[in-house]
Amino acid sequence: MHSEFDLITRFLAPASAGSEAGVELGVGDDCALLEPTPGERLAVSVDTSVADVHFPASAPPHAIGHRALAVSLSDLAAMGARARWCVMSLTLPEADGDWVADFADGFHALCRTTGVALTGGDVSRGELAVGVTVMGEVPPAMALTRAGARPGDCLAVTGFLGGGAGGLARWREGERDLATPLLRRYLLPQPRLVAGVALRGLASSAIDISDGLQADLGHLCQASGVGVVLSPDALPLAEGLVEALGEPGARQAALCGGDDYELLVTLPPACLEEAQRRLAAQGLPLTEIGRITAEPGMSGVEASTSPGWRHFPGEAP
Amino acid sequence: MHSEFDLITRFLAPASAGSEAGVELGVGDDCALLEPTPGERLAVSVDTSVADVHFPASAPPHAIGHRALAVSLSDLAAMGARARWCVMSLTLPEADGDWVADFADGFHALCRTTGVALTGGDVSRGELAVGVTVMGEVPPAMALTRAGARPGDCLAVTGFLGGGAGGLARWREGERDLATPLLRRYLLPQPRLVAGVALRGLASSAIDISDGLQADLGHLCQASGVGVVLSPDALPLAEGLVEALGEPGARQAALCGGDDYELLVTLPPACLEEAQRRLAAQGLPLTEIGRITAEPGMSGVEASTSPGWRHFPGEAP
After folding, report:
1. Is A216 among the annotated ligand-binding positions?
2. Binding residue per annotation — B122?
3. What positions does the entry give for Mg(2+) 4 binding (chains A, B) (predicted)?
4. Chain A within 8 Å of B197 (Cβ-Cβ)?
5. Cβ A25–B143 below 8 Å, yes or no?
């Protein structure tokens, strides 16, 4: 049994070292002290992942740590921001040192690969949940908001769709091998941070797909005051999705499934090829899946009965 | 029953208006975009308040909202930082619109009185808990860390002690009138932000009292590599505390009780009077309660059996 302080020290300590990343004071005082880049905007977002709402409580702890950070970082990616810092709040029902160590491994590993410094945290007793606030930076007027889509723009998506929903389906069937591509997509999503930065100056708007393509596309169109003609046949399907769900199920998962954490962007047609070239250099496809229209509304798909991934009332995974 | 999106819109909308406070883009996109003050350090802290661990689940919702923000802001106060922005993560078992509206009232009211802009949020289904990440600013080298106490410094505390523990005791006895001074101290603590800024350049170190005077003093001494002679008779007791707990109980509450959210600071003796003058201008006493020593350890009090407010294993209020 560990005290709150012991736990914090144990699982946050690895990241307080290494202050090259604009961290004047890391974990261990009342606040972290950070050094923002002069002239840049600070991009901030928070996401909380609750056990058996957003992820299975019995998932491997390192995947829970990775995933909780990844879904927050995905918001920075969608803004075209460079990820810099994060703080994390963990509530857990009991102080299980092995669980926390494995959780921290997954969290810290993603910190390292994305260049993010964990600069503070908080551990409480409670239902298993992880809240992560991420902070990034972006030069003024370079941020990719949801509001910039213009009629005539291409609609495009990074990577592949439906993997989140497909992975959840495989999990429910009892699959536990994280090497399974769909399970990896569901439990170990990769935030598209490098892609987001590469799309600065090309994309006119962006959002990350957390609630499902159709729902998030709706948010983007609403914020931009535009409509869209979607090409459902063009949706890039995740590896193994048709095998797992059948053709109609796969298309439905790509359209309405949540947890894909790909970027949905709009671009002037003249910018599409350059954007595809930049992302191909990262090994990431950028697929055109529709066209923005002046007239509001979404055509090309039937009105879905699924409103996307909603937590009230939510279905536990 | 409201969807996550409806709830967020309803309870966050009031704060997205009014962008005078360095908010280029508030609630409603993937991230908030903030404008840090050039040359200042960004102070960041997160605290999560869990129902029946940190506060009674049946407390008035507006008090829960106030308190969750207050405890995070208290960390900025202890750093001498000016509070600027916050993001909030709320998990709640059901989407009760009246509850959320009252909760939001309490949260927003404290935002207004402290000049903090709520710039983002996240609502999930789960056990009732509120995580608040606060961001503030402080000029380089002006931050009040825990590590600056020097032998010979005075130890002083703002306001009065024991009110948090006394209020919790009254709550357990069935008191529900928020006009009761002790209950106010427990459920509606006031973060000492103005005091923290006023102590810049005078205090050599600071910490806020969340885990109890003795526990937090221990943290400060450890970070500074010093010891302390405490004057227990000098502790300023909260109004109504002796009546509620008796003399020995009151002294114990002041020494070991949590949730006071006063500032514990050290100052060179020559600075004490000026610090008291500045805080008196805010109507806040600053009481000398001990002296920092070169020799580690805490004298003046018996070794306490209470290690302060710990959440593992924690006692529910």
Report:
1. no
2. yes
3. 30, 45, 75
4. no
5. yes
Which letter does DSSP use for residue A301 in this model?
A: S
Beta strands in B51-138 (DSSP E): 82-92, 117-125, 129-138
Other C-beta atoms within 10 Å of B129: how many? 27
Q: Is A299 annotated as a binding residue?
A: no
- Burial (Cβ within 10 Å: 0-12, 13-18, ≥19) of residue A308: buried
Q: Pick from B76, B126, B312: which is nearest to A129 by CB? A: B126
- With H, G, I as helix, E, B as strand and everything else as coil, classify residue A201: coil
Angle value at C-alpha B97, between A91 and A89, nearest 5 degrees: 15
Chains A, B: CB contacts within 8 A come to: 227
Q: Any idea which residue has 């995070």 for tokens?
A: B72
Ligand-binding site membership of B233 (annotated): no
The token pair at A109 is 């590993």
Q: Which two tokens stand for residue A260?
A: 């894909």
Q: B272 in contact with A at a CB cutoff of 8 Å? A: no
Chain A residue at shortest CA distance from B126: A50
Complex-level ipTM: 0.91
User: Which runs of E-coded beta strand occur in A11-143?
Assistant: 23-25, 32-34, 41-50, 82-92, 117-125, 129-138
Task: Say whether domain B4-138 belongs to CATH 3.50.50.60.
Answer: no
Tens of pLDDT along chain A (317 residues) come to: 345 556 666 666 655 444 458 888 887 889 999 999 999 999 999 999 999 999 999 999 999 999 999 999 999 999 999 999 999 999 999 878 889 989 999 999 999 999 999 999 888 889 999 999 999 999 999 999 999 999 999 999 999 999 999 999 999 999 999 999 999 999 999 999 999 999 999 999 999 999 999 999 999 999 999 999 999 999 999 999 999 999 999 999 999 999 999 999 999 999 999 999 999 999 999 999 999 999 999 998 875 544 454 444 433 33
Domain ranges of chain B: 4-138, 154-299
Q: Check the annotation: does A102 bind a ligand.
A: no
Instruction: Please name the member of A28, A79, A131 whose beta carbon is closest to the beta carbon of B131.
Output: A131
Distances B192 to A18, A190, B195, B233 between C-alpha atoms, Å: 32, 41, 5, 23
Dihedrals phi, psi of A249, to nearest 5 degrees: -65, -40
Please check whether residue B222 touches A, CB under 8 A. no
Sheet of B117-125, strand order = A23-25, A32-34, B41-50, B129-138, B82-92, B117-125
Specify the CATH class of B154-299 in words.
alpha beta
Nearest CA in chain B to A95: B312
Task: State how far the alpha carbon of B95 is from the alpha carbons of A278, B86, B190, B237, in Å.
Answer: 43, 22, 28, 40
Q: Do B125 and A311 touch (CB under 8 A)?
A: yes
Chain A residue with minimal CA distance to B95?
A312
